[in-house]
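User: Hi! I have a protein structure encoded as tokens and I'd like to know what sequence might fold into it. I'm fairly new to this, so please keep things simple.
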């Protein structure tokens, strides 16, 4: 355990010089935060993880990868964006960790990789041990849902740069996939089905627009009850991002999958286009689903044009799976058995003369 030594002058009882504590960094509070988070980190451990919390590096036994013929490591890093400010205002710190894991690990699973381990970085203006532990609790719970281990992290105290209650989070993750099973654009064929998986809400993108519209323009409050939501605006906006990792992996084990697309910043069309090969086109029919009321509230309140809304928010779709047409029913059955709301939202066609990689057609179902 680290400690802060007493640097007071015996004569005056006052500090005799500058100290880390006087500069605003509380090492003892940091140590307490580590103690509080240990039980949550332990819940994420996989057999391949060596050592415990507190080392300089997290250790993962790579000999476990010997079962692969040609293992490819997949890595990703991300944050949660300005959604953290809503968590700060509401004093809710655990759910934001689910968002972080989802943003990292659902990117990794897109190529068919199994999530292995993750590290986090939490930056605060002042260490409040219970708050930091709550953030890590949420990250650990998210790791359990993604099937990965939380092998380490860093909590940094930045007094003077951040306010005492300000914080931000980021994370990095690693997964593994057999080279022959790598998913992506080269597998996609004409006639493939585009299967949409429902989002749990706004997820963790577009909150700068959401905050601008709902709070700066409409002057709504986080504790305001919204009838369409059946709960407060704050509760709706803090709904954790759904973690699809294990659902996607289950899909690859039960049926043929050609590609996944994680719908994050840029919206449905732009993210889907990232996995569509040259010469092909993804057509997604808006009439196959109804976006949740929160999307309508943002669009209507801010008079946001539909194309602007669609390129900023997920509009109710958090993950896309592209599968052979003959595998679509089996894919839907697997996802249904796992409690995932999913549907056939479109298909892969040959690209027309003036089309791009993906397009939305029709009007949303009412």
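Assistant: Happy to help. Inverse folding works backwards from shape to sequence: for each of the 366 positions I chose a residue that suits the local structure. Here it is:
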């Amino acid at each position: 355990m680290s400690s802060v030594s007493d640097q007071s002058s015996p004569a005056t009882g006052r500090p005799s010089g500058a100290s880390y504590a006087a500069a605003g960094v509380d090492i003892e509070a940091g140590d307490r935060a580590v103690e509080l988070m240990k039980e949550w980190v332990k819940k994420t451990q996989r057999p391949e993880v060596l050592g415990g919390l507190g080392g300089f590096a997290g250790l993962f036994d790579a000999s476990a990868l010997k079962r692969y013929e040609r293992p490819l490591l997949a890595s990703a890093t991300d944050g949660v964006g300005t959604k953290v400010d809503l968590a700060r205002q509401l004093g809710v710190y655990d759910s934001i960790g689910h968002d972080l894991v989802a943003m990292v690990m659902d990117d990794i699973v897109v190529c068919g990789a199994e999530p292995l381990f993750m590290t986090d970085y939490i930056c605060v203006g002042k260490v409040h041990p219970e708050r930091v532990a709550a953030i890590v609790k949420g990250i650990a719970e998210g790791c359990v849902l993604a099937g990965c281990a939380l092998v380490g992290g860093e909590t940094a105290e930045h007094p003077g740069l951040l306010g005492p209650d300000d914080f931000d989070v980021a994370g990095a993750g690693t997964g593994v996939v057999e080279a022959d099973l790598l998913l992506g654009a080269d597998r996609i064929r004409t006639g493939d089905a585009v299967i949409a998986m429902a989002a749990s809400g706004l997820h963790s993108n577009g909150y700068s627009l959401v905050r601008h519209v709902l709070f700066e323009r409409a002057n709504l409050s986080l504790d305001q009850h919204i009838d369409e939501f059946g709960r407060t605006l704050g509760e709706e906006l803090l709904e954790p991002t759904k973690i699809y990792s294990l659902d996607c992996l289950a899909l690859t084990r039960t049926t043929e999958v050609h590609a996944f697309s994680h719908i994050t910043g840029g919206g449905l069309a732009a993210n889907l286009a990232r996995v569509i090969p040259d010469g092909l086109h993804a057509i997604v029919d808006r009439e196959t689903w109804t976006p949740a009321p929160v999307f309508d509230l943002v669009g209507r309140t801010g008079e946001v044009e539909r194309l602007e809304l669609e390129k900023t928010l997920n509009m109710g779709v958090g993950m896309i799976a592209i599968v052979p047409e003959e595998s679509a029913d089996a894919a839907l059955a697997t996802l249904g058995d796992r409690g995932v709301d999913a549907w056939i939202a479109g298909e892969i066609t040959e690209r027309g003369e003036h089309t791009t990689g993906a397009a939305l057609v029709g009007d949303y179902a009412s």
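A useful reference point when you look it over: The first strand starts at residue 49 and ends at 50. Feel free to ask if any position seems puzzling.
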